[in-house]
Amino acid sequence: MNEPVIEMSGVVKTFGDVRALDGLDLRVERGEILGFLGPNGAGKSTAIRVLLGMLRADEGEMQLLGGDPWRDAVELHRRLAYVPGDVSLWPKLTGGETIDLLARLRGGFDVARRDALVERFELDPTRKAGTYSKGNRQKVGLIAALASEVELLVLDEPTSGLDPLMESVFQDCVREAAANGTTVLLSSHILAEVEKLCRRVSIIRTGRTVESGTLADLRHVQQTSITARTRTPVTLDDVAGVTAMRTEGDRVEFEVGDDSLDEVMARLGAAGVVSLQSAPPTLEAIFMRHYSDDGDASDDGVAPAGASK
Amino acid sequence: MSASVALAGTGPLVRVRARIDRTRLALWTIGIIVMVAASAASIESLFPTQADLDQAAAGSDNPAIRAFNGPAQALDTLGGQVAFQVGAPGFVIAALGSILMTTRLTRREEESGRLELVRSLPVGRGSSMAAAAVVLGAMNVVTGFGVALACLAAGLPAAGSWAFGLGFTTVGWVFAAVALVAAQVAPTSRAASGLAGAVLALAFVVRAVGDMTNGVASWFSPIGWAQAARPWADERWWVFVLPLAATVALGVLARALLVRRDLGGGLIPARRGRAAAVPGLATPLALAVRQQRGLVIGWSVALALFGFVYGVIVNSIEDFVSDNESMADFMAASTDGASLTDSYLAQSIRVLALIACGFTAQAVLRARGEETSGRAEPLLALPVTRRSWLGSHATISAVGSVVVIVAAALWVAIGVVIATGDLDQVAGLFGAALAYLPALAIVVGVGLVLTSWAPRAAVATWAVVAGVLIVGMFGPVLNLPNWVSNLSPFEHVALAPAESASVTPLVVLSLIAVVLAAAGFAGITRRDCPT
Q: With contacts defined as CB-CB under 8 Å, which chain B residues touch A128?
C-alpha cells in the first residue's frame, strides 16, 4: 500500500509552441489530501487532464492508481471521481437526473448518500441544469463525485462559485472522505481552504513543480514574519533577505530569511525595541513568492516534488 | 430613466456584435440571396416560352400546391413563378435566420453570463436589446436589397423585384421582433428559439389554410403579408404597413417586458423536472437519446409534412407536367420510359432524402458540439470509453436517419393513398426511401472521420451536405459534368419507383460508409480529447 496513488515525473505536454507542462513532477500518497497550487495558466488543469487520460503526454513517466492514465483510462475512471472548476451540464436534464446519470456511469452509488448530500449542499434537484447558477452547477458536480465510493478524488478548483457556507460543507465532506481512506488531489486558489485541508502541497509554475512539501516544512525552511515597534526609526532595506517591508510610523513589518535573522535583530536592538512579534510566514507569503515572476524558486535549493521526503 | 440613459452604450455593442457574428450574418444573408438567384435562373430555364408559363399557371393553381407555395398570382409570368416557387420557402428561411440570430444576440448572451458583465458597465438596460434590433434590422435590409438586386439581375421587372426584396426584409423584421418577445418570456434560450419557431410554424399553417380557401386567414400571417404585397402581380405597397406596425408593436412589447423581469429570469418560470433519473438513464446512449430526441422528432415532423404535400398532389402532376415540355424533360431526364407519376414520386423521395441529410449531419456533429461546450469532459472522466461516447451520437444519427426517412416515406404514401385511393405505390415508396440509407450512412461516416481526425474542421460535414444538395436539387439545371454529380452518393441510388432498384451501388455505398465509420472510431482514441 506504500505505492503512491499518483506519480508523475518529467511530464511534458505541448500545444503547438506552448509547453503547458514542462517536466512536471507530482506525487500523491495514498490517503493524503494534496494541495495542488499555482497561478493561473501554470498548467494545473492540463496536468489533471493528462492524469485523466484526456490529453496524451509527450514525454515523462507517470502512473495513476497503479495503471497508465492514457492506456487504462476507462478502468481507472471506475476508481476515481473528478470535479472540474467549471462544471458544464446538459441543459435539458435536471440536477438530480445529472447526478444519477454521472454516478451510475461510474458504476453505481448509494441513493441514501446522494440524498444526504443533496440536502447538505441545499441543492434543488428538480431544476433543469440550464437554469442553474455557477455555484449550483458546481454543487451538482460535487454531489455526483462524492456520492460514489472511490479511491481518489480529483478536484480542480471545485469550490469556485460556492458561498462560504457551502465551502465549509465541502470541506467537511472532503475531510470525511479522507477519513475513510480516500486520496484527494485538490487544486485550489483558496489558500485558507488548502491550509485547512492539506498537510502537503505542491506548487507549480509554467508547467514545472517549484515547491513541494508539508506546510510545516515550507514554513520552517523559509522565512519569519516580523512586526516590531522601535524607539528610533530603523532601516532594514539594505539587509539581504528582507522582503515585504512596510513602515508605518514607528512600526515595521517585514519577512526575513533565516540567514539574515541575526543582523536584523541586532539592528532592531540598536534602535530600541518597544514590542516584537514574530510568526512563521503566512501561506500567502509563501505562495506570493512562488507566484510572482521575480520569486525565482530554483535559487532556493528546494527539492522537487516527490523527493521532499 | 431617460431614453438616452436607457440606451447608453448601444453603438459600441452594435459594433461588437457585428464583428463577432460577421460570418454568421454573412452566411444567412448571402445564403438567402444565392438561393433566390439560383432559383430564379432555374425557373427561367424551366419555362423558356410563354406557352410553358401559361401551362404551368394552369397546372399549379390547385389547393394542395397553393397550401405549400402561396396564393397563385400572375403565374403566367416569370416573376409570378419566382414569387410562387421561392417566396414561401425563402420567407421561412429568412424568418428562421432572424429568430436564431435574435436569440443568439439576446437570450444566449444572458444565459452565458456575458450580458451580466456588459450590464455592469455604464450601459443602459435596453442597450443590448437595442443593439440586437439594429443588427437584425440591418441584416434583413441587406438581405432584402440583395434579393431585389438578384431579381433585377435575372431580368425581372423592377417594381416586383423591390416588392419581393421588401417582403424578405419585413418578414425578417417581424420574426426578429417575435424572437425578441420570446426571449423575454421564455426561461432559456432554447425555449425562446422554440417559442418563436412555433409562431413561425403557426404563421405558415395559417397562411396555408388561407391560400387553400378564400384567402382571409392569410391576412393573419406575416408570411401571408409578404405574399399579399403581390410582387410582379400589381404590387400593393400599402400592405407593408402591416409588418412595420407589427414589428414596432412587438418591439415595444419586448421592451416593456424587459424592464419588468430580472436578468436571467423569464416570464414563464422554468419547468421543474424529476429529482431523480429514470432507471434507464444510465448509459451514454440513453443520454444521447435524451439530448437528441427532440431533433429526431422535429425533423421527422417536418419531413412528414413535406412528404404529405408531395404525396397528396400526385394527381395534378400528370396534368401539370404533361403540358410543360421542359418540366417533362426534367422529370424524365434520368428515368426513361417510366410514367410521370413514378418519376415525380422518385424525385420527391430523393429530395426528401437530401433534406434528411441535414438531420444526419446535425446529429453526428453533436459529439463535437458536446466536446467544445465542455460537456464531454465529465463523461470522459467516467469509465466511459471514447468509442461508446462517439458511438452514442453516431447511433442517434444513423437510427434517427431511418426514423426520419421512414416518416417521410410514410406520409408521402398516405398522401398518395388519399389522392388516388390506391395502395399499389406504398411498398415501392418505402423501398425507394430506405435505399437512401447507405448514402445517409456515408454522411455519418464523414462526420465521424472529421470529428476524430480533424476536429476543428468537423463543421466541413456541412459542406458535404451542401454539395449533395446542390448536385441533387440543381444538378440538372446547372448542367454539372457527370464526374461532379457522381461524387454525390445520392446520385448512385436508383430513382425508384421510376427505375428498378439495383443492389450493387447500395452495397458499395454501404462499404464506403463502414470504412469511414471504422476510420472515425479508430481515430477518436488517438487524439487529445477534448481538443
A: 188, 270-273
Which tens digit of pLDDT belongs to each residue from B105-146? 888 888 777 777 777 777 777 888 899 999 999 999 999 999
What pLDDT, on a 0 to 100 scale, did the predictor assign at position B72?
Answer: 87
- B window 337-396, beta carbon within 8 A of A: 373-375, 377-385
- pLDDT tens digits, residue range B161-200? 999 999 999 999 999 999 999 998 887 787 888 889 889 9
Best residue of A72, A74, A87 to probe chain B, by most B CBs closer than 10 Å: A74
The grid coordinates listed for A261 are 535573522
Q: What is the pLDDT of residue B166?
A: 96
One-letter identity of residue B510: S
Over the stretch B455-472, which tens digit does the pLDDT of each residue have?
Answer: 999 989 988 998 898 888
Q: Which residue did the predictor score with more confidence, B76 or A108?
A: B76
Q: Please say whether the dihedral angle defined by the alpha carbons of residues B213, B215, B217 and B221, taken in this order, is positive or negative.
A: positive
User: From the centroid of its chain, how far is CA A285?
Assistant: 15
Q: Measured in Å, how far apart are chain B's first and last C-alpha atoms?
A: 47
Report pLDDT for B337: 63
**The length of chain A, given as a count of residues:** 309
Q: Is residue B222 scored above 90 in pLDDT?
A: yes
B274·A86 Cβ contact <8 A: no
Q: Of the candidates A234, A279, A273, A233, which has an alpha carbon nearest to the alpha carbon of residue A256?
A: A279
Angle between helices B340-364 and B314-322 (to 10 degrees): 120
DSSP B291: H
Please tell me the total number of residues recorded for chain B in this structure.
531
Cβ of residue B481 closer than 8 Å to a chain A Cβ: no
Residue of chain B minimizing CA distance to A138: B378
Distance CA(A68)–CA(A24), nearest Å, equals 16
pLDDT, tens only, B328-340:
666 665 455 667 7
Please count the residue pairs, one from chain A and one from chain B, whose beta carbons lie less than 8 angstroms apart.
113
Contact between A90 and B375 using a beta-carbon 8 Å cutoff: yes
Backbone angles phi, psi at B94, to 5 degrees: -60, -40
Residues 123-142 (B) with a CB less than 8 A from some CB of A: none
pLDDT of residue B152: 94
* Cβ-Cβ contacts under 8 Å, A96 against chain B: 273-277
Which among B244, B211, B212 is positioned nearest to B228, based on CA atoms? B211
Select, from the ranges A148-157, B4-13, B340-349, the one with the highest average predicted confidence (pLDDT): A148-157
The pLDDT mean for chain B works out to 87
* CB-CB under 8 Å, A128 with B277: no
Look up the ipTM and state it. Answer: 0.78
SS (H, E, C) chain A: CCCCCEEEEEEEEEECCEEEEEEEEEEECCCCEEEEECCCCCCHHHHHHHHCCCCCCCEEEEEECCECCCCCHHHHHCCEEEECCCCCCCCCCEHHHHHHHHHHHHCCCCHHHHHHHHHHCCCCCCEEHHHCCHHHHHHHHHHHHHCCCCCEEEEECCCCCCCHHHHHHHHHHHHHHHHCCCEEEEECCCHHHHHHHCCEEEEEECCEEEEEEEHHHHHHHCEEEEEEEECCCCCCCCCCCEEEEEEECCEEEEEEEHHHHHHHHHHHHHHCEEEEEEECCCHHHHHHHHHCCCCCHHHHCCCCCCCCC
DSSP string, B337-364: T--HHHHHHHHHHHHHHHHHHHHHHHHH
Residue at grid coordinates 405574399:
B227
Reported as a single tens digit per residue, the pLDDT across B14-48 is 888 888 889 889 989 998 999 899 888 888 888 88
User: At A82, phi and psi to the nearest 5?
Assistant: -125, 135
Mean pLDDT of A164-177: 94
Predicted pLDDT of residue B325: 61
